[in-house]
Amino acid sequence: MRPTWIIAFSMLGSVGALSGAGILLAFPKLHERFKTPLLAYAIGALPGAVFLGLLPEAIKEGRAEWIFIVMLCGVMAFFALEKMRSPKENGFPARAAARPGAASITCGSHQLASYWARSSSP
Q1: Can you say whether residue 91 is alpha, beta or left, with left for phi > 0 and alpha for psi between -120 and 50 degrees?
Q2: Do 96 and 90 contact (CB within 8 A), yes or no?
Q3: Do 63 and 81 contact (CB within 8 A), yes or no?
Q4: Which pLDDT tens digit goes with each residue over 1-48?
Q5: Is pLDDT of 111 > 70?
Q6: CA distance readout (Å), 116 to 57, 95, 102, 109, 120
């Protein structure tokens, strides 16, 4: 592919991204509605780039056993960090306490699950 096409499509993508960001900043309700899905998409794109693009190149140049061990340790570390995060950041205790008949399962300071008892009265 010629470099002019690469530059042209890069510029088109940049203009599209900036205009999309401008629209989200101009309309606060739209921003609040799409903030979580767009953030999840951006966070998912990073591991996708690693696993689909960089990991095969690293395996070709290095020892595959060590690369997979480091990759597994990284995934486990992110999982552990997510589990150690305070459940109060997610708002679970506030929601559980606000509902009558609410109960939660906790392990130390971490909430494992919430459930709400259904009352038989209307």
Answers
A1: left
A2: no
A3: no
A4: 688 989 999 999 999 989 988 998 899 898 888 888 888 888 888 888
A5: no
A6: 50, 10, 4, 20, 13
H/E run at residue 115: strand 110-116
| Residue type for position 82 | E
Q: What is the pLDDT of residues 49-104, one digit of tens each?
A: 878 888 888 888 888 888 888 888 988 888 888 777 655 555 545 444 445 554 55
Q: Which residues pair with 106 in a beta bridge?
A: 111
- Rounded to 5°, the CA angle 50-51-52 comes to 95
88: DSSP letter: G
DSSP H helices, the chain, are 3-26, 28-49, 55-61, 64-84, 92-98
Rounded CA-CA distance 54/45 in Å is 13
What is this structure's pTM?
Answer: 0.44
